[in-house]
Write a structure and sequence with these properties.
By secondary structure, the chain is mostly beta strands. It has 2 helices and 17 strands. A hairpin with a 5-residue loop joins strand 1 and strand 2.
Length: 248
Amino acid sequence: VSDVAADDGSVSDRFSIEKQPTVTASFPRTVGRFIGTVDTSLQESAASTSFVAATSFKVDGDNPNGTQQAAQGLLRFRNLFGPQRGRIPLRATIVSATLQCEVTNGGSSIALHRMLVPWSARATWVSRGDGIQADGREAAAFADAATGVVRVGTLTLDVSASVRQWQARPRRNYGWALLPTGPDGVDILSAQSDTPPRLTVTYTTATSRAVSPAMFGILDAASSQASQRRGRGVLLDHGGRWAAAGNH
C-alpha cells in the first residue's frame, strides 16, 4: 500500500498494487496418455489411411524416399483456458509457452502453422483435401515457430505467439499443422506414446487498485499552497516539483 501525501504530511490519497505469483501450467496435466492432447499424421503415400492410433507421427517432404510425397503432422492441446483448476485464466498475462516433443528420428526443419479450421484425429491426406494448405484459410500462411534442423532427443520450441492468439480467441484453438521444409523426415512420439508432446505455459495474474481519481498535474512549489486551498493533495516528484494527487 502506498500513500500520496500532501506537503503538510497528511494523507491525501492511497492506492495498492497486488500481484499474484508466477504460475506454470503443463498439458497434459497427468502422466501418460491424455485425452486432451490430439495428434496424427497425414501421409500422401497412404492417402486414405488414418494414423490416429500410431505411437509416433511423421513430418517429411519425401516419404518414402525418392517419391517427393509429403507427410504432415497435426497437433492440438484442448481445454487450455478457463476458470477450472489446471487451466489458464482468460485474463492471465502469458509470460512464455514452450512445446516439448520427443524426436526419435531427426531431419529437416519443421514449420508450425496455426490451424484455422477444425480437424479430426482420424483425418487423412484425402479427407483434408490433399493434406494441409498453409494458405491463410486452412492454416496460417506464416509459421508461428520453426525448429531449425531437428536432432534426436527432446525438441523444445517457443510457441508463446500461438498461445497468446488462442487466449484472445479460445474457440479458435485448432492447434498446429507441422509442415515439412525439406526432404529429410522427422519422427515424433505422439500422444499415444508414453512420452507425449507437452505444452508448458507460464503466466501471471495481477490486480491493481489505482489512485482515485486518477488525475495528476504538475505544480511548482509556489503554487502548491493554492492547490491545497482548492482541496488538492500534492506529491513531491524527483525534480523537486509538486504533483497534484487529484480532487478530494
